[in-house]
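Table S2 (continued). Query chain:
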Amino acid sequence: MSVLKNDRQESSVQFLENAYELQVAVYKLVVKFPKRYSFIIGNPIAKLAMDCHMNTKYANSIYPTNKHEYQLRRDYINKAMGNCQNLSSQMDIALNLFSAEINGFKAVLPLIRDQLRLLKGLKESDKKRFKTILE
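Corresponding output:
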């Protein structure tokens, strides 16, 4: 059964889909960079997007049963958030260099913002969900 777009709610694992979309959007963007900037700017930006996606997947693969596993999950979430923050900074630099030449920056920046919001929400929900482990 279909749900109207206005009535749809965010999935509990939306952070995984968003990380995937972010990586794809960044890859589509960096291939448009001038070739001479590929290794200096393009590759590091693509690596940050890939690391954000991978760390998000790693975090989701851990279902904590003790404090150590909870801390591992939290560490991967924090790494993914750091990747997103660094990606945002690098995207700003690229935007200043290529703003007139390349379209696509407008699609990536909201994805980064959304991913950070979703990861912060994940941390908060984990804190509530695994409260018994932490005590």
